[in-house]
Amino acid sequence: MFTQFKYWEPYISPFDPCPPMRIKSYSTPPQLYIPFQPKGLPQFKPMEALYRGTLWPALFSPYPDPKKRGDQDE
């Protein structure tokens, strides 16, 4: 399967004036991994779909807190 979250370790210069972020991350939208809508895709109930912003759970992608998704500040 795929993961919507990608991580990398950026170059950290010894001359950076600010404390470095050792691990950075970004998210990719789920529609990149679904080229077309397959038949019989599960659906949220109407009120939950309105709350989540999509009818299909496979296309749901929340914006998580960077601290919860693994970013670290030092």
What does this structure look like?
It is elongated and about 55 Å long. The two termini are 32 Å apart. The mean pLDDT is 81. The chain has 2 helices and 3 strands. The protein is of the alpha+beta class. It has a domain at 40-66. This is Spore coat protein CotJA. Pfam families: CotJA.
Comma- or semicolon-separated keywords:
three-stranded antiparallel β-sheet, single chain, alpha+beta
What's the SSE blueprint?
Blueprint (H helix, E strand, L loop, with lengths): L4 E4 L12 E7 L18 H7 L13 H4 L2 E2 L1
Antiparallel strand pairs: 1-2, 2-3
Question: How would you classify the helix and strand content by structural class?
Answer: alpha+beta
Instruction: State the total count of DSSP E strands.
Output: 3
> Average pLDDT value?
81
Query: How would a crystallographer describe the biggest sheet?
Result: 3 strands, antiparallel
Tell me the Rg in angstroms: 17 Å
Number of helices: 2
Q: If strands are numbered along the chain, what order do they take across the biggest sheet?
A: 1-2-3
How far apart the termini lie comes to 32 Å
- The string of secondary-structure elements, in order, is EEHHE
Summarize this entry quickly:
By secondary structure, the protein is α+β, with helices and mostly antiparallel strands. The protein is built from 2 helices and 3 strands, in the order E-E-H-H-E.
